[in-house]
Amino acid sequence: MGLGDKIKNEARKVTGRAKEKTGEATGDKGLEAEGKAEHAKGLEAEGKAEHAKGSLKHAGENIKNVFKKH
Known about the structure:
By secondary structure, the chain is mainly alpha-helical. The chain is 93% helix and 0% strand.
């Protein structure tokens, strides 16, 4: 995940949280739900990137181990 993606995901999480809290404070259930959804999208994208990073690292370790055995 590049720096631009990290910034976008963080911005999405912060914006979502702000909308959620504003919705709670004003009693606007629609804004609150929109904020929760936006925050979740930021978390989901961040989680997918971390999972992919872990998978690549694991694959690299497996390849390294194959060459050590031969």
